[in-house]
Amino acid sequence: MQLERIRYFAQALRLPFLTASVFPYIAGSLLNRSDFSPAKFFLGLAAVAATHLGANLLNDYADSKSGADWQDKKSYGFFGGSKLIQLGIFRENFYLKASIVFLGISFAAVTALAIVSRSMTIVLYAIPVFFLAAAYSYKPLQLSYRRMGELVVFLLFGPVPVMGGYFIQTGAFPSWEAFMASLPFGIFAAAILFANEIPDYVDDMKVGKRNWVGAIGSDKAFIAYYALVFLAFFFVALNIILEYVNVVGFLSFIPAVFAFRAARVMRDFPREKARLVESSRLTVVLHGMASIFLIIGISL
């Protein structure tokens, strides 16, 4: 029974998506290794991971309150939330309290990082990150309901962790190199969100949850998906040309085959959730594999 509870909690946290924040943070931390600090790295990693998990929990809470996750109670693993509230496993307040705990852990890690770094500037930079993480899902702004969710995800999983990791190690902010290196990570993360919005298109429209798929329509969404992936790879190539990433970074183009397969599924089955699980899964794999090759290219 205890093991089952742990499994449910891991499901509530949406652990498979943690790479979307951890990988770009690692990349930013390795951009300049002339004076790499393991202590700073791990404190920053704890802050990034805890903020991401807290935001995931808050997202389930908010989407349950709005009714979005109640339109379809089936769990698909990649979109529509964890569904554990709808299945009666956890209550809404459990998600809210757990999110506060994780965000509190993140703030404690940021505070410790500021002490180790002897700079309270880190705390000041962290405040707008916490704000965006909460405002993405939570009222009154609820940015993911106002066609701004994709932009927030781009920022929180691209420029924020990459530039943040670079700043923690070097004290330099802003950094043009770190910003440019962050762009592929942020766009790939936005592509994950976009892929996950397609199967939820009808349910989101019912509760007034407006996003990019809602503006385009699920039938044409695969075209915008192609555009996002192309843009991400364009910035990969640009980073290599600018020598911010080693030519090994070109290996990140290998998983592009997954994007073509995902887009075909989106094109052929735009309203079939069971089939669209594949496109969401492939996009997560695309992000993960491309990120690993980019990290290698950055670290060489």
Summarize the structure.
With 300 residues, this protein is an all-alpha fold. The protein contains 13 helices and no strands. It has helices at residues 2-13, 19-30, 38-66, 92-117, 121-135, 149-156, 159-170, 176-197, 201-206, 212-216, 221-241, 256-268, 273-299.
| Structural category | mainly alpha
Low-confidence stretches: none
CATH class: Mainly Alpha
Q: Output the number of helix runs.
A: 13
Total strands: 0
By CATH, the topology is Farnesyl Diphosphate Synthase
Q: What's the SSE pattern?
A: HHHHHHHHHHHHH
What is the count of structural domains? 1
Distance from N terminus to C terminus (CA atoms, Å) equals 47 Å
Helix content: 55-70%
By CATH, the architecture is named Orthogonal Bundle
Task: Explain the overall architecture.
This protein has 13 helices and no strands. It has 300 residues and is mainly alpha-helical. The chain has a single domain, classed as Farnesyl Diphosphate Synthase (Orthogonal Bundle), CATH 1.10.600. α2 (19-30) packs antiparallel against α3 (38-66), α3 packs antiparallel against α4 and α4 (92-117) runs antiparallel to α5 (121-135). The termini are far apart. The mean pLDDT is 95.
